[in-house]
Amino acid sequence: MRSLFGAAAVALGAVLSVSHAADSAKVPAYVTAAVAEPTRPDRDRQRDADRKPDLVLSFAGVKPGDSVGELLPGGGYYTRLLCQVVGVTGRVYTIRVLPVVASNRPPGPDDPKNPCTNLIPLSQGAAELNLPTGLDVVWTSENYHDLHNRNFGPADMKAFDTAVFRALKPGGVFIIEDHAAQTGSGARDTETLHRIDPELVKQELASAGFEFAGSSEVLKSADDPMTDKVFELKGKSNKMLFKFRKPGK
User: Which residue of 5, 138, 139, 143 could cross-link 69, Cys pair, CB 3.0 to 4.6 Å?
Assistant: First the structure.
């Protein structure tokens, strides 16, 4: 006779399998194609299991023909995906936000050449942020917390988020994926642990006029105590994934 524990484990496994199948069923074909694109570098593919780009892009709702502003694109992991998703009728503006104090972080590996022809690179300071207007999506991944640090001023976050708000068309969305800090910690850990309190993010975006449009738990990690530096966790940190909308249609 099967134990109650064994039966419960089987039932839980079935629920998780159904949940994963349901998430996968929601992935549009153009997102699947972007993730499978053969020009993506191996180092990006090796991160896919942790970053779950198919589910993240599907939650964000980025689609062919969209105009996207990607803040602080870093090594281009999502740049290479976004440009494929929006396609030849879309645009991706990569906005490098310039620090006011040089970072002592060692440089990463050279970026592989991006085959997309729909990329428009820009560089601006956080205090002078002036994005292209009429954007469908503004996107930032793993770096919203950085703007609270000394090397960015720190940025005036209400002014910064208001600049993003102005750049979006009515109904446009601001997608924020970042490493989560403990509830109530505010911006305490942004420079030390490279994390930010999800509630602070919600407060900051609300103060700029955004509506909270939803969250996803696809990047949650119950094993992360949120007391370690995220770089020590090698992609296994607990992350928030939020969608904020500019009111209107």
Answer: 138
